[in-house]
Amino acid sequence: MLGYVLRRLLAAIPVLAIVAVLVFLMLRLTPGDPAAVIAGDNASSEQIAQVRSKLGLDQPLPAQFAIWIGNLATGNLGESFFFKKSIGELILGRIEPTLSLAAATMLIAVCLAIPLGVVAAYRHGSWLDRIVMGVSVLGFSVPVFVIGYLLIYIFAITLGWFPVQGYQPLSGGLGGYLHRLVLPSLTLSVVYIALIARMTRASVLEVLNEDYIRTARAKGQVERKILFRHALKNAAVPIVTVVGIGIALLIGGVVVTESVFAIPGLGRLTVDAVLARDYPTIQALILMFSGVYVLINLLIDLTYSLFDPRIRH
Amino acid sequence: MSDATAPVLEVENLAIALPGGGDRLRAVDGVSFAVAPGEIVCVVGESGSGKSVTAFSVMGLLAKVLKPVAGSIRLLGEDILTASPQRLRALRGDRMAMIFQEPMTALNPVLTVGDQIEEVLRIHTDLGPKERRAKVLAMLEAMHLPDPERMHASYPHQLSGGQRQRVMIAAALILDPALLIADEPTTALDVTTQAQILKLIREMQERRGTGVLFITHDFGVVAEIADRVVVMQRGRIVEQGPAAQVLGNPEHPYTKMLIAAVPTMTPARRPPVTGALALETAGLAKTYRSGGLFKKAREVHAAADVAIRIHRGETVGIVGESGSGKSTVARCIARLIAPSAGQIMVGDRDIARLPERRLRPLRRTIQVVFQDPFRSLNPRRTVGNSIIEGPVNFGATPEAATARARELMGLVGLDPSALARYPHQFSGGQRQRIALARALAMEPEILIADEAVSALDVSVQRQVLALLDDVQRRFDLAILFITHDLRVAAQICDRLIVMQRGRIVEQGPTAEVFARPDAAYTRALIEAAPGREFGRGAGQVQEAASA
Amino acid sequence: MSAEPTLLAPAVAAPLPLGRTLAARLLRNPVVALGAGFLLLMALVGALAPVLGTLDPTAINPATRNRPPGFERTIRAEDGTTTTYRHRMGTDSLGRDVYSRVLYGARISLLIAVSVAALSLAIGLLLGLVAGYIRPLDGPIMRLMDGLMAIPGILLAIAVVSLFRAGLPAVIAAIVVPEIPRVVRLVRSIVLSVREEPYVEAAIMAGTRLPLLMARHILPNTVAPLIVQGTFIAASAILVEAVLSFLGIGIPPETPSWGNIMAEGRNLFRVYPHNILYPGIFLGLTVLAVNMLGDGLRDTLDPKMTGR
Asked: Which residues form the ABC transmembrane type-1 domain (chain C) (predicted)?
């Protein structure tokens, strides 16, 4: 068991290292002079030279990488050109809204999607199954921001139940915090629900065809218990896996949703950084998001052993 | 239940419709038989005979597309076909129970063994947790499973195949059902394990007076265990009666044919083959290393120190159970995998270490017929294209290769015009013939048959074995015949090599090995062969006739 | 071992008939027919946009900004004749005709869908074959793919576009890069499982060389799954283009793409929702059609994957 945890941890390290190299190379591989790109279109040659020496861009590539990694290791993410601020501080200040949005979305999605998927699989071929599957395809097909504006139009503008945009920190009171979180997290959860419901349905269906389900029937077990005692526990691993893989979708969705609802989180920061061509910030954000993604999936890998004794032993 | 002689199961005139597209309208038709208490009835037949469908219909576990359309199934006098789903559930596990072919997949991998046996008690009884546990432990004990306490808390993946089947039997018999249905329960097991499981079923059934409906394709198993025999062919019963009568004095031509097709355990005496040496291995070994930096490194010796000699015109059999390394040896010799050590001498060349580039010109010397007839031909290519692929690689023109392929098709007993057809249009036996034609097209000196007849029905098996014998004589082939089945080995091999855990434990002329086995393992294998006595008489008659 | 293949175990599947019979079988599936029909319609709309009563989609007209759907405007030609033009979907904040922009936008979306799918499949297939068959390259390729997959797709796309000059090629590249790893994994896993098949081993025994072995026995197995995967990539490509354009980092804003129209309509959404509504509907229906096509193809071509 401990060996398994260790192996998974160690397997994550090269992945993160490769991400770091990719992110580092990204800017260096751009056509043209990275210093000129960073300094912006209106920069003078002096400013460009300044940027170059400040970032160590005048040194050979391996040395640049060493400097960059060294800084990362000591927690120094560099300084934002656009916001004129330490990137670490910048990110810290934006975590709460994003974390709230992501957590609320996941909660909604998991609570809705898994029961929907299980029921669809159990009633395989029924009208209920077809509706769940049909709606989930629709959920995949409409961009997040269209869903967002649709919800705003119906629930905020027409019905007036929720504020149109904006975010209120938790410190400003739980009521207002939640009130403003409802629409954005509903918006973001649509794709996620579609994904998890489909996967849940597929895994439960597959498990229901296994020999041990037939064995349980041969024992005279009732269908409900076959579903919950035998099928669901076996289907758990693929379901949990897709919850983890979906985090990537969630992160992409956060960027868009925060723009639609004017939420001052990391997603908005990403868009602002891209529009301002603030490369050090972009690099730091991608690295951070990827790190979070890999770590969450690592945690999910570790939960497999809870569901599957074959991994535990 | 008061009348001890009233049958536990009566099937009368059962007919089950087959959904459209099948080769016949009904999966089974007009099936009638009965199982008395304390009796083992074997339903025996080849693929597609409807024997498993019959078993599943008794349990009420048929796939939804298969519908009983006529007849009745009575369990202790109660009609199953008209019973409500609730009533069926109450009967299943309590009055009738079933064990399946694949003990590997029939148990839920994420629940403990004890839990899965207890489940039956939770469903059908009001026993408290302590009583349930005590009952399960007693049952595990009765199944001769070691350390019942530990077994109770184990997960299926920690058990061997035989242990899992014992667990299945424990769960099936814990409530003393009147009827036990066993659907090929030993087919997936090694022969020594099979013997133990058959003994266990016998023992349990005698002690508890259970009626057993035993589905099998194997006449050896029938001879070993059956009180009465029901023979099925294409959904109908062709013959039934007491085991001694059906086996010893079959009436129906189909039964006669099936029984005659069962290879005898008594090998014919064959003169030693004196052809030129075709293949010789020395010190052949294959070692797999697993693990690495953070996992305990493990070495598995799949094969070690294997020395084999085969002459032209000789058939050498390698027998052994799963994990014995017999297939590893075959794949090393075919150079589908690279051996870790040793020599493989073909003629005067050692091919053990040749790189693929230098090996390719020598490939035509050794050809393989694989086990699975459903996967050994590319489903997307015509049979003709599969056969001529090799010769064309070696420079034959497609026209010449096709002409030769037509001859070979005739030789293996197929219509030459079938070359333009695709593999899915052929049966399993026909596909093995095609695979043989493909191998022969290369004009090999050595043919490796890797469990080549194991997936076939006995009647087809006999034909393919005869064909192998025939082509061997025509082409003076050296044949390396890999099998787990001693009966088949006895029939075809000149010499026999017995392998266990990667090593050769015994080798010698086939008749010698059977008559005077040296190694304890060889003796155990021969002992374990089901229905060992069965077919011996017939074999002697044949031998006498040919002498 | 000898269960009853005719009844209980699946028999070997017949090879997929290609060509006319396959097309006929596909179109009998109503989901496929509906999806394919709608896509055909969209392709026609894009191709015939100039003759479907449209104006120049990039023509700015300050006089008629932000008009609601159905607004009519009289256009005076140079020779003095006048025609009345009805803005079926209204105008945007620069006075451009939304109807014309939506119709022309179909071109961009379909172009992106097709080119992204084709490029991702081609690159992924190549890398997947190499990884699956050339042992020493397997590790490096797959580790690189792991790294790419660890970066959330849209973020990776954003990073790629932000590096290059904005434009169609940059957007296509940005969407292709994150899609490649999944294709590589798919192809590699097929190669690894197929090469264990006895018929491939039989071909090795027959002395078939590697390139021929690949072409004859391995590649055909990747066709059906790749077609299915390609469809889903196409759907995702249309969505990602819309997202990038919506965030203002996609195709240059004057180009009429559905994402651009919606991006332009963001600011005045409360008052003039039609600028998001109409392109949103077209986009949603198109992606839905592609997804339906993909589901149908998968059910027909690759029954094992059904439900994924």
From this structure: 106-294
Is residue B406 within 8 A of residue B419, CB to CB? The reply is: yes
Rounded (5°) CA angle C132-C135-C140: 85
Mean pLDDT of A213-239: 90
Which domains, and CATH codes, for chain B?
39-51+93-260 (3.40.50.300), 311-337+349-546 (3.40.50.300)
Residue A141, CA distances (Å) to A43, A270, B64, B461 in order: 42, 24, 35, 55
- A146/C291 CB distance under 8 A: no
CB contact, 8 Å: C248 with chain A?
yes
pLDDT of residue C305: 47
- The number of helices, as runs of H, and strands, as runs of E, in chain A is 14, 2
Report in angstroms the alpha-carbon separations of B215 from A17, B181, B453, C2, C134: 58, 8, 21, 11, 47
CB atoms within 10 A of CB B292: 9
Q: Which residues of chain B have pLDDT under 70?
A: 1-4, 20-23, 291-297, 535-547
Question: Nearest C-alpha of chain A: how many angstroms from C39?
Answer: 14
* CB within 8 Å: C273 and A153: yes
Q: Which residues of A touch C160 (CB under 8 A)?
A: 26
B475 touches chain A (CB under 8 A): no
Under CATH, domain C39-306 is a member of which superfamily? MetI-like (1.10.3720.10)
How far apart are alpha carbons B59 and B89 in whole angstroms? Answer: 9
Q: Compute the nearest-CA separation of A143 from chain C (Å).
A: 6
Domains of chain C: which residue ranges? 39-306
C265 → chain A, closest CA residue: A149
> Residues B529-532: contacts with CB within 8 Å, 24+ apart?
B529/B191, B529/B195, B529/B220, B529/B265, B529/B486, B529/B487, B530/B191, B530/B194, B530/B195, B530/B198, B530/B218, B530/B220, B530/B221, B530/B223, B530/B224, B530/B225, B531/B219, B531/B220, B531/B221, B531/B222, B531/B223, B531/B224, B532/B220, B532/B265
> Is the overall model pTM greater than 0.95, yes or no?
no
CA distance to partner chain C, nearest, from residue B327 (Å)? 13
Task: Give the least confident one: C66-75, C201-210, C259-268.
Answer: C66-75
pLDDT per residue over A98-136, tens digit each?
Answer: 999 999 999 999 999 999 999 999 888 889 999 998 889
Q: Which chain A residue has its CA at the smallest distance from B295's CA?
A: A3
Q: Does A234 touch chain B (CB under 8 A)?
A: yes
Buried b (16+ CB within 10 A) or exposed e, B314-351: bbbbbbbbeebbbbbbbbbbbbbeebbebbbbbeeeeb
Residue A275 has a pLDDT of 83
ipTM of the complex: 0.85
| φ, ψ for residue C210, nearest 5 deg | -50, -50
By the 8 A CB rule, do A102 and A293 touch? no
State whether C4 and B454 contact (CB < 8 Å): no
Which of A7, A212, A219 to mutate to test binding with chain B, by most B CBs within 10 Å of its CB?
A: A219
pLDDT of residue A61: 79
C210 or C95: which leads in pLDDT? C210
**B485 contacts B496 by C-beta, under 8 angstroms:** no
Nearest residue of chain A to residue B175 (CA atoms): A219
Burial of residue B129, with CB atoms counted within 10 A of its CB: 0-12 exposed, 13-18 middle, 19 or more buried: exposed
> In 3D, which of B445, C290, B411 has the Cα closest to residue A142?
C290
Residue found under tokens 């059999």: B317
Residue A263 half-sphere exposure toward CB, CA atoms < 13 A: 33
| C291 contact A CB<8A | yes
Pairwise CB contact (< 8 Å): A220 & B171: no
Q: What is the pLDDT of residues A146-163, one digit of tens each?
A: 899 889 888 988 888 888
